[in-house]
Amino acid sequence: MISKRVFILVITVAFLSTTLGFQVTSKFKILFEKAKFTMETKGDLKTAITLFNEIIKKYPNEREYAARSQFYIGLCNEKLGNVEARKAYEIVLSKYADQPGIVNEARARLTLLESKTPSIGPTTRRILADAEKIGHGSTVISKYIRTVDGNTGDVFQFEITSGDTSRIKNNSNLKKNDIDNIETYIFSPDGEKLAYNIAIFDSVTNKWTYELHIRNLDGSDLHSLYNEKYDYIYPFDWSSDGRLILAAQTQNNVDELVLISLEDGSKRILKKIITGYIGLWITRFSPDGKYIALSSVKKSNTPNSDILIIDVENGNEVFVAEHPAEDQMLRWTPDGKNLVFLSDRSGTWDLWAVRVIEGKQLGEPQLIKKDFGYNVWNVI
Length: 380
Description:
single chain, alpha+beta, four-stranded antiparallel sheet, elongated, disordered N terminus
């Protein structure tokens, strides 16, 4: 009798547990169906967006439903004609990579939006009447265009709005011969510091070696980033947070792309360079610091280069805007969603752009300006 009661009790508890568990886990499904009904049947898109957001907030661990809710937020905004649609789809790509089905749907919607976006040609505005002193290494920072006087190390700057010029004198103790041995300068993101490579003669080995130095604009706080000397080193860019410098180095006849920490001088090798430094001179961090873009060939015997994107965190590589013609990297757009590059794919050197979301190409490259010309050194 006792065993029968125990058996009945066990069955009852199991039934209640299953029922209650179903009720708990099905709440997000009920809310999801309610949101879809509100969107598809009632046509109340704004309320549907609120409900889908509620699902994402309350049930973030239900990844499939959270991802689909985010996707439907994009659909609702798209139907409402809101620009937030694009952002909603991009969130699907960035936050829900573990849901490949809905990611592919979001990517398809983004591609369709791209095709519907009217092509806007470039506009030209004259900033300076006399730009003779602006050359390779010039940087736009805040309201200034800045460049470094290769003879003195002074920072020469042009105020964009007024066209006025001024000079920040280099007060470091570098001698003229030392300054002559500096090859290139790059400005920090805040515009307050300079990094540069300098050739130094080693009297012990009787050879020239290179070091990477840092200084303030006025030449103060001049120091070597690290003491290791290289056969060659060339700085390309600073990360947006000012913590890393992207550079190419040569040691023992091996060329490598490296990241150097401003905090302790440590370095991390990103990639072995298989074709020397040709085409690498414009190698840039994305504005968010997550990716690096450069011109690179796929194999050492490939005649022309394409645009390569490298994931800073894991080193994964992806080619974008691929074409048998020659493509040369120029820059990221400020929002980090497009790469601008030069290509002779149409028979002339033209300016092109390709949309990039989370390190991957979205849609086909778009022609920006025909017959732009080939002079990348002054377009950086």
